[in-house]
Structures are given as C-alpha cells and as structure tokens.
C-alpha cells in the first residue's frame, strides 16, 4: 500500500472512530438529561394531590410562599453584595493569603539576588498544639494558578492542620499578587530551593523536609526535588498535571475537556497575546474563568441556587469560599509562556529538556526521595492519567524504577473533584492524615511502585479508624489500566505542539510588535478592572449607588424572617424548576465537550496521521523490546557476582520477601523497628543508596533467581561478612515480633537454600526451625 493510500485509510479510520464516539457521547448526554428531567418531574403532581388544599388554604399558602420567595431573593442579592464588599476589602488589603492559621515570615523572595514574589512563612501552632522541632518539617507549596495562596491551610482540617496535629513544624510557601519584574519559573525554583535550605538550617536534628505540592505546585515541587535532591525528603504531589496530554478518552461519557483547549485555541500564542495586552503581565482571572467554564451548571446556577434555597444557613460557607475564589493574582508574561510552552502544550517536564536551577536540564530520575502521587477519579481538571502517566514516560518499566532505587506510591480517591482534593475536610481527616502518619514507613519500602490502600473501619464508639496497606504494582499493568487506547489518543497532541510552535513564531514575528505598541499600563489596568470575573463582584457591592437600599432591606428581612418550611408544595415545584435548569446547563456542557473533543481529534488526529505518523509503529515496537534486553537490566545482571555485604544482605532480603500479597503497614513498621534494633549488624549507608542497591538486587533476583542464590558466596568472600549475615538472620528470626508472623512454604524453602549455599547446613536452633 502506498504512503498516500495508508494515510487516507488512517484518516478514514480516525473520522469513523470520532463519529462513533461523538454519537455515543451525544446519546449519553441526552439520556442523562432525560433521566434528570423525569426524576425531577416525578412525584410533583402526586405530591400536590396527596395533600389537597381548600381555595383559602391555597391562597394563604401561596401568599406565605411568595413572601418567603421575596425574602430569600433579597437575602441572595445581599449575599452577593457582601461578596462584592469582601472582594473590594480583600483587594485593598493587598490580597493576603486565606490561611486559617497565623504565620510569621521567615524569608522574603523579593530580597533575593534574583527577586521573586514568593515568601517562606512558618505556621504558628494554634494554642494547645505542641510541635517538636526535631520532627520532620513539612513545606507546603500552594498552586499559583490564578488564585492566591492558602488552600493548603484553608481550614483546620487541611494539610497544614493535619501536619500540625501530628507534631510537625509546618512551613508554607506563599506568593504575592504581583510578580517581580522579569522573574521566571526557573527563578522561582531557585528561590524555593533557598527556602528549603533555610528550613533545614532551622531543624538540623530533623529528617529532610517533606514537600507537599498542590496542583500546579506539584510540578513545581518535582522541579525543586530534581534540582536539589540532596536536601529534599519525601515529595507528595496532589492533583498535579505532570503529563498534560493524558486523559480518559473512552466511548462512554466525555472526560477532561480542558486538555483539548490548547489545540482548539491554536496553541500558546493566545497566552502571549493576553500577556502583551496586559503590558507584559498575565491576569490570573483568565485561568479562573477557564475553570468556571468547565461546569456552567455550577457556575451560573447551582451555587447561587444553594444560597437561595438555604438563605438562612448557606451564605457564610459561600462567602468563605468566594473570598479565596475571587482573589486573582498576576503572572509575568515570561512565566505563563514558560508554563504553556514547556508544560501544558509542550509536555516537556518528564523529557529531561526543561532547564531550571544550577544543574541545568531537570531529570526527574535525579529525585532520590520517595514520591507520593495523590489523584482522584472524579477530577476532570487533573485526571489520574495526567497525574500518573509521567512515571511511564520517565522510567518506562517497573525494573527501571527499581534500578534507580526509587519508591513511588500512588493513592487514588474514587470521586472527589479537583477542588475537593485540596479543601475537603473529609479528605484531610482520612487521606492526608494517613499520608502524614505513614510517610516515614514509605521511606522504608523497598524500591518499586506501590498502591496505597486505606481501609476504613468503625471503632467501638462509632469513630472511624483506618488501616493502611501497600500493594506492589507493575508499572506496565497500571499504565495499561489507566490508558485504554495504549496512549494512542495522546499522539494528536504532538501535532498540537508543532502547530503551536508555528503559531507562536508567527505571532511573535507579525503580531507582537503591533500589540506592544498599542498596549500600556493604563489599558492593562483597565482591562483587569473590567474583567468579567472582577466585574461581577465589584458591580454588586456598596460601590454601586443603585444598591443603597439592599443592606437595610436585608436587615429588615432577617428581623422578621418567616420561612414556610421545606415541605411546602411550592418549594417542591421550585426545586423541580431548579433541577430542570441545572440539567439543561449540564446537557449543554456535555454536548459542548463532545463537539470540542470531536473537532480536536478530527483536526489534529488527521494532522498527525498525514505528517507525523511515519515510522512511529517501529518506534513503538522498539520501546516494547524484551525487558531482559534493557540496558539497566543487563547492567544489573552483569554485576551478579560483584559487591559486598550490603549487596548480599539486600539480595537475601529480596529472596526472602513474601510475594504476591499486600504489605500491611504494621509489617513495614516492624521492619523499621528491626532496622533500629539491629543497626550494628547493618551496613552504614545513606537511605537512597540502600534503596538503589535493593532495586538492583530485586532485578537480579527476578531474572536470575538461581544464579542469585548460587553467587551469594562471591558477595560474602570475607568469613566475617558471612558470619555477620547469618548472625543477623538468626537474631531476627528468633525475635518474638518476627516469630508471630507465620512464614510461607516458599520462604522456608528459600531460607534453607540460602543456608546451604552459605555452608551453614547445621545452623542454629532458630535457623533450623524455620528452615525445616
């Protein structure tokens, strides 16, 4: 088949598949709309007939409902007026962080040699909270995605609150509303590295700081860990778009529409245009507006109806959240261009070509500390594919993770959305509390990829209790399970990157000079003031003279408030109308996203098929070469007879490990206790080196189990080392804590083999007991 014929055939297949998926999505959207309409309407006529009213009762009830409706309307508008007043006050105060906790500034990034609008603050423990300065400090980095900082400590049940209650010193990386002139993302990375150095100097007797990065700050935390691996402890990244091209492209409901936006807008040039119109600054309100466009039902109706329907109780919660949601921060044009070109459209973070810090290009393989990935299946802004696919891009296989001595732990929530994963008190009490409590145990895990499981149980008083376990996973299996099309749906994004580079160059060549000539600080400030996200707030505030009556009217309503009760028949009709409105907006969203997805794959799927697909099949086959032929596997197997006591001990540990079953937290903690109790019989090596040696020995034990056993004497050539290892085995196996764990038949047989190979057929009583 000629090349042209093959391309035309691929184009036909793409069009047929897109049409099929679009039809399925459209059908599903209409069906769900019908289901919501039917459910909303069901029971309303029957409910009215079940409690018939006389005409005078209907008149009295109708008047009562009309009064209630009017009162709630005034309270709703007054809540919006308070939101506007809070917005203006927050702006006048300089948009301070919305942290629930008091804090003190430790370092101000604006005073650094390369100034940035970031600062390191120490969270002041609340009264009654005891902090141990010798415990591992936590450094929490909030996202700079349009909003201000504080979401990591938005309430008592939060990342900050959980770490404080566990007795850890907590530091927070905040930022100011306006960037420093000329600051870039690499400058920010350098500043955060200085912050971590300061934290380490403040806690010299503590373990390396743990870093928590939320959303956009997740990849900032990874950049920090890769640029300064010697000073960084475990890294926890939450809802972070590390592999932005990833997503759930399925034949069912359309998911994750945000990943298509860059292609449908022609690439990164629009971010550059917006920055140039802002006189070199990018208004974060545009990013927030993108988030709101994802869910028009909530943006335009649901959140306001909740206030209207619960006008006596809901405003306080609404205003608390809107204070953060309505605080818009600014980025430099250089920053947003770096983000869009390298991360969102370019998807280069994992490739080793992104430059930041004194080490030059960042290589995520340089990270030596364990990494915890926390994502949610209900997140349509950072879906699990974007949070996890980078692992397959960087390491390629489970064996390579082990060869690098890396520990990666994945934790998946079933349903919480993108904001909920940061602000939900329930998530904080369960997932974050467990992460903090087991982080030291995660450091003790052997190299590999693990799934963290949190089983909920009820204590005698009904209080929830949680049991954590770790299940070792194969990267190949996880990647296949998350990506139904084997990531073939990511290939069109390569075409997006090419088109984006062309459009970016064209804009810089032809458009930017004209835009910069026309834009100035005055027009930029005017554009920010009248941005729709700000306008809808300050326009409904005390600045508006037409609303002079609203505050007093709301006070009068509260003084004589009389609600008819939720069981009133008219309230049922009201809720039905609200549900129909919400369902209509949700149906519009589903149809919009389905059409956007279809347009994206028709345009860029065909561009990829015609111009970029040649030779990709062979490349895929090369990537799927036999694992044994991979360089790091060959290197590990070549060293099967090389090494010393540390390698022998790691190999024995791998050979004796239980296979194919979850690893309870209690067993990991027991391993930590045994390490401390028998430290004089263990090699004195840094933790990351111990993990790397363990990973290499795991590869050897997997591919050459017999030779791994037979060559043990070569690693223990010194008689003292052999006695030391056997003494350690004897003492551990005789330990009462270990004897409480029943060994498997495979473990008994393996111990007998190891003892025989090492020439200790007689052994001691403890060895003979387990060896039989």
Automatic annotation (TrEMBL):
SUPFAM superfamilies per record: alpha/beta-Hydrolases
Domain of life: Bacteria
Pfam families cross-referenced by the UniProt entry: DUF3141
Keywords tagged on the record: Plasmid
PANTHER family (alphabetical): POLY(3-HYDROXYALKANOATE) POLYMERASE SUBUNIT PHAC
Protein name: DUF3141 domain-containing protein
Organism: Cupriavidus oxalaticus
Biological classification of the source: Bacteria, Pseudomonadati, Pseudomonadota, Betaproteobacteria, Burkholderiales
């Amino acid at each position: 088949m000629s090349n042209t014929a093959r391309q035309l055939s691929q184009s036909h297949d793409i069009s047929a598949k897109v049409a099929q998926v679009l039809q399925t999505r459209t059908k599903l959207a209409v069906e769900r709309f019908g289901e919501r309409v039917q459910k909303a309407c069901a029971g309303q006529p029957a409910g009215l007939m079940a409690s018939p009213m006389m005409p005078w009762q209907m008149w009295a009830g109708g008047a009562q409902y009309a009064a209630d409706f009017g009162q709630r309307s005034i309270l709703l508008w007054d809540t919006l007026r308070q939101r506007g007043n809070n917005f203006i006050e927050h702006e006048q105060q300089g948009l301070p962080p919305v942290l629930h906790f008091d804090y003190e500034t430790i370092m101000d990034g604006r005073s650094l040699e390369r100034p940035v609008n970031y600062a390191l603050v120490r969270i002041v423990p609340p009264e009654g909270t005891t902090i141990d300065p010798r415990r591992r400090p936590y450094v929490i980095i909030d996202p700079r995605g349009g909003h201000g900082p504080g979401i990591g400590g938005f309430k008592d049940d939060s990342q900050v609150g959980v770490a404080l209650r566990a007795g850890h010193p907590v530091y927070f990386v905040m930022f100011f509303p306006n960037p420093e002139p000329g600051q870039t993302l690499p400058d920010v990375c350098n500043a955060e590295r200085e912050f971590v150095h300061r934290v380490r100097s403040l806690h010299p007797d503590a373990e390396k700081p743990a870093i928590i990065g939320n959303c956009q700050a997740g990849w900032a935390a990874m950049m920090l860990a890769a640029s300064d691996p010697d000073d960084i402890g475990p890294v926890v990244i939450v809802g972070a778009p590390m592999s932005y091209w990833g997503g759930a492209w399925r034949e069912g409901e359309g998911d994750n529409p945000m990943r298509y936006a860059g292609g449908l807008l022609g690439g990164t040039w629009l971010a550059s245009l917006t920055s140039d119109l802002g006189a070199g600054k990018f208004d974060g309100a545009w990013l927030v507006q993108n988030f709101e466009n994802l869910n028009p039902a909530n943006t335009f109706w649901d959140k306001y109806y909740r206030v209207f329907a619960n006008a006596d109780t809901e405003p306080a919660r609404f205003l608390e959240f809107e204070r953060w949601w309505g605080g818009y921060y600014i980025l430099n044009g250089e920053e947003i261009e770096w983000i869009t070109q390298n991360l969102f459209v370019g998807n280069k973070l994992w490739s080793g070509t992104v430059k930041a810090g004194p080490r030059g290009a960042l290589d995520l393989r340089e990270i030596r500390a364990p990494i915890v990935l926390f994502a949610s299946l209900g997140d349509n802004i950072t879906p699990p594919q974007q949070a996890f696919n980078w692992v397959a891009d960087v390491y390629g296989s489970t064996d390579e993770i082990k060869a690098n001595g890396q520990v990666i732990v994945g934790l998946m929530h079933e349903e919480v959305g993108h904001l909920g994963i940061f602000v939900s008190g329930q998530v904080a009490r369960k997932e974050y509390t467990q992460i903090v409590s087991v982080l030291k145990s995660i450091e003790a895990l052997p190299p590999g990829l693990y799934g963290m499981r949190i089983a909920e149980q009820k204590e005698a008083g009904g209080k929830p209790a949680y049991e954590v376990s770790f299940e070792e996973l194969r990267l190949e299996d996880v990647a296949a399970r998350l990506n139904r099309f084997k990531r073939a749906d990511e290939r069109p994004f390569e075409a997006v990157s090419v088109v984006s580079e062309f459009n970016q160059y064209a804009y810089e060549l032809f458009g930017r000079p004209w835009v910069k000539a026309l834009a100035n600080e005055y027009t930029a400030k005017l554009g920010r003031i009248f941005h729709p996200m700000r306008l809808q707030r300050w326009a409904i505030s005390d600045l508006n003279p037409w609303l002079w009556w609203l505050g007093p009217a709301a006070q009068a309503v509260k003084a004589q408030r009389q609600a008819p009760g939720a069981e009133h028949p008219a309230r049922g009709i009201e809720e039905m109308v609200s549900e129909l409105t919400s369902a209509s907006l949700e149906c519009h969203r589903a149809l919009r996203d389905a059409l956007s997805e279809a347009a994206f794959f028709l345009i860029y799927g065909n561009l990829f098929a015609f111009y970029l697909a040649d030779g990709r099949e062979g490349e895929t086959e090369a990537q799927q070469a036999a694992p044994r032929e991979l360089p790091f596997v060959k290197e590990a197997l070549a060293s099967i007879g090389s090494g010393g006591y540390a390698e022998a001990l790691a190999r024995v540990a791998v050979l004796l490990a239980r296979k194919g079953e979850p690893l309870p937290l209690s067993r990991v903690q027991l391993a930590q206790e045994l390490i401390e109790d028998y430290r004089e019989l263990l090699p004195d090596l840094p933790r990351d080196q111990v993990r790397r040696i363990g990973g290499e020995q795991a590869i050897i034990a997997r591919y050459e189990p017999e030779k791994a056993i037979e060559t043990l004497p070569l690693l223990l050539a010194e008689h003292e080392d052999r006695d030391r290892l056997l003494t350690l085995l004897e003492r551990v196996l005789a330990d009462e804590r270990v004897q409480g764990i029943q060994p498997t038949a495979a473990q008994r047989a393996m111990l007998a083999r190891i003892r025989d190979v090492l020439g200790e057929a007689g052994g001691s009583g403890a060895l003979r007991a387990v060896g039989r």
